[in-house]
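Phosphoribosylamine--glycine ligase structure dump, as promised
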Amino acid sequence: MRTNEIGTNTRLGGMKVLVLGSGAREHALVRSLVADPVVDAVVAVPGNPGIAELADCVPVEGGITNGPQVVELATAHHVDLVVIGPEAPLVEGVADDLRAAGIPTFGPSARAAQLEGSKAFAKRIMAEAGVPTSLSHVCTTLDEVGEALDAFGPPYVVKDDGLAAGKGVVVTEDRDAALAHAAACFERPDGRIVIEEYLVGPEVSLFCISDGEHVIPLAPAQDFKRVADGDQGPNTGGMGAYSPLDWIPPHLVEDVVERVAKPTIRQMALLGMPFVGVLYVGLALTARGPKVIEFNVRFGDPETQVVLARLRTPLAGLLHAAATGQLEEVGPLHWHDGAAVTLVLAAEGYPAAPRTGAAITGLETITGETAYVLHAGTATTADGLTAAGGRVLSVVGLGADLAEARATAYHALGKIEMPGGHHRSDIALAAQNGQIEVPR
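structure tokens r here:
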């Protein structure tokens, strides 16, 4: 294998990378991997029309949660690294199957993926590791839910214990609505509910890369989960994000690494389930300090779109080092100056009942280096590009500062036509105006 220096001491070359997933997060990953000089080719399973412009998109029998088929495909393509995008294949153990076949894989085992697959498990690990988080009750009956709601009082935070694609959380002042959400979650087999105290303070997303022992943080970002302006309406998978966060306290990232990420990684190793991949730490900056809202075990969407837009360090070497236990050899990460903003264009009816099939036009008018489009729920038909999911596109804008990045992103989004499509108009606006306050 040819050699080429990545980071400080990690040497790679002629790499072929397989990326699992089909969303804007995976499009962002593929975009960064293709730009890495040591990467010769990227294969995406199943990919999407935007990814297909950069990589070889191939289907897999049974979908990306079919571990044996993913292994067979990775072997047939002689890949040097597999990067797993979504949470479902991780929870299903696809990373275990790949590692058993000797294929370097960025993504945790099924046991380690319980940090996202079960909120009750994550709370247990946080307690054992001494990680600061909200108080919570795990409930298995509606009576227990009612008691927990009354113990904490409004606003009520009700979370489905299992995977829910970012939409299993309800935060409401209405006790009946909280109970109704819990009842719906209990309809699932083995349904459990986590009731939490409401944390007051702005939220921060921090991705921490780990090889099972060492931790390297990426730049923090902030995303917007509610569907409408002013953080109104139901939760979604995310309607936009931005980075950097100039308003966060000094040393926040270092503090979170030392008080949250490293203790969690150590605890997982002690339990015999070393965590290899990205630990997504969702934080609330409260008057009592940073507290963990949730863990995810993969890159977040849409935060990945802005974090990778600013990352100068080649991505393939970083992820390969994590996958092969060599993260300690990676030098300090380097970042582009300036800011990045991503805006999500969603289909009519999203998130409750997205309508697919709307024609998408105008993408060809977005050119240059300061704005680009990442595909999520799109499909190519005989009539052209159409909406094929709830979140359809992510539009990324770059700028010298947040105001310029916002202006660039919204200008680019304005060139896209999609009947019934909707987006938020206030992504990163409060940060641009200096209106975010951290409680003290």
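The mean pLDDT is 94.
lmk if u need the other ones
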